[in-house]
Amino acid sequence: MTVRHKTKSKSGHRGMKRVDLAHAELASTRNVRDTNRDIVLEITRSKQPVSRADLARLSGLQPSTVSSIVRQLIREKWIIEGGQAKLPRGRRPVMLTLNQQLVMLVADLRPGHAILAVVDINGHFLSRESILLASDATRASAKLADALYELRERYPDKTFEGVGVSVPGRVDPETQRIILAPNLHWANFDLKNILEDRLELRVELDNDANACMVSALWYGQMEGVRNAVLIAVAEGIGSAILVNGQLVAGRRGLAGEFGHIPIDSTGPLCGCGTHGCWETFASSKAALRYYNDSTPAIPVRTIRDLLNLAVENDASALAALERQARALGRGLRLVTAALSPEMIIIIGDITALWSRLGPFVEEEMAASMLVGDPPHLFTASDGELARLRGAAALVLQRHSGSERSTQPSREPAGVPRASLPGLG
C-alpha cells in the first residue's frame, strides 16, 4: 500500500508510517535512513514481540543497522524491550514491542456532539465518551478543549504524544484550518491553535473520510490495493481517494468532494448552498427525510432509530433506506467513471443493514459501467471507531520521535498526503 520512498513535511516532522514490505525499497545511505526506520517500526508493529535478529531477517537490513535503529527508537520511546524468548539452545534474544504507554488523545467531531477517546500506539482504546457541543464554533471548541484536558488528566501515568481530530469537512493541509464543513457550519476556523493553547500538545486535524482511509491502511484491511475510494456515509457524504498508493489531497485539501456534486438541480438545498448535491439524496439525513415525508405516526429523529425500525420490518423504514441505498449506488457511478478504483470502501450507519441494502447499492453502481466489472465493495461497520483510530494514526505518522515535544508546534503541521501511514 505504499510508495517507494518517504516524504517529509515542510515542518521537517516525520513519524510512524505503515510500510508495505512488498513494495518498500531498503536503503543504506544516510539520507534515506528514515525509510529503514519506518520498515523496522512496521515489522515491530505487525510481528511484536520480535527480536533484533528477526527484524534483520525480515527486513533484509544488516544486524548492525537494525541495532542502531532500535537504540534510536528506544530512546524516542516508540518501542520498549520486554522479556526473553525461550530457545532450545543459544543465547535468549530480548524481545521488542511498541510502547503501550505512548497514547493519543483523539476526537471525532460531529454536528452537535463529539466522541472523545484515549488510544494507545497499538490502536487499543483506553476510554471512549461522548459530549454535546453547541453549534457555535467558538463555544464548541472551548468545551471540546476542556473535555479533552479533563480526559488527559485521568491518565497521569501515560505519555501523550499529541491530539488527533477527525472533522466532517475539509482541512487545509498547510494551515490546518477547517475551511469547509457544511454540516458543522464552520468555515475558516482555527480549531488547531485553540486546542493547542489549552492542552499544550501538538494537534493534527484531517477530514473524517481521510481518517477512515488511514485507519483502513494502518490496520491492514487493504493489503495489495493501490487504487481505492472510501465513502463515509453520515450526515453528509465524505470521500477519500487513494491513487497509485497515494492519498490525494488536491489544492487546499479539497479533492474528493463527490458529496457536493449536484446530480439534480431541482433537489433539496444542501448545506453547501447548492441544490441537489449527491449527499442530499444518499446521506443518513436523506434517509430520515424520506421516512418522515411518508407521514408516519411517529417521526424519527436519528438514523439509528430508523435502522431499528427496519430491523423490525417496518415497510416505510425499509423503503426509505432502499431509496437511500439506490441513490448511493447511482452516485458511485460518478466515482467509478472518474477514478476507476479497484475497491470502494463504505463506512457509516448504512452498513449496519448491508446484507439487505448492499445489493441495491451494487445493482445501481453496476448499471452503467464503462468497461468491465464494477470495483469490489468493502464495508467497515463501525465508522466511529475507524475515525477515532484514524485520528490516532494521524498523530503517529506526523510526529517524529527525535523531535517529540509536549509543546505544540507553531509551524504549519500539514503533511503531504503521500506520507500518510501506508503511503510513505
How would you characterize this protein structure?
- By secondary structure, this protein is α/β, with parallel strands linked by helices.
- The protein folds into three domains: 1-99, Orthogonal Bundle (Arc Repressor Mutant, subunit A); 102-213 and 405-419, 2-Layer Sandwich (Nucleotidyltransferase, domain 5), CATH 3.30.420; 227-384, ATPase, nucleotide binding domain (Nucleotidyltransferase, domain 5, 2-Layer Sandwich).
- It is 35% helix and 20% strand.
- The strands form four sheets. The protein has a five-stranded mixed beta sheet with strand order 6-5-4-7-10, with helices on both faces. Strands 13-12-11-14-15 form a five-stranded mixed beta sheet, with helices on one face. A three-stranded antiparallel beta sheet has the order 1-3-2.
- The longest helix has 25 residues, at 315-339.
- It starts with 32 loop residues before the first helix and ends in a 26-residue tail after the last helix.
Q: Any chance you could write out the topology, listing elements then pairs?
A:
Blueprint: H1 33-47, E1 50-51, H2 52-59, H3 63-75, E2 79-84, E3 94-98, E4 102-110, E5 113-120, E6 125-132, H4 137-153, E7 159-167, E8 170-171, E9 178-180, H5 191-199, E10 203-207, H6 208-218, E11 228-233, E12 237-243, E13 246-247, H7 279-282, H8 284-293, H9 303-311, H10 315-339, E14 343-348, H11 354-366, E15 376-380, H12 383-398
Parallel strand pairs: 4-7, 7-10, 11-14, 14-15
Antiparallel strand pairs: 1-3, 2-3, 4-5, 5-6, 8-9, 11-12, 12-13
Helix pairs in contact: 1-3, 2-3, 4-5, 6-12, 8-10, 9-10, 10-11
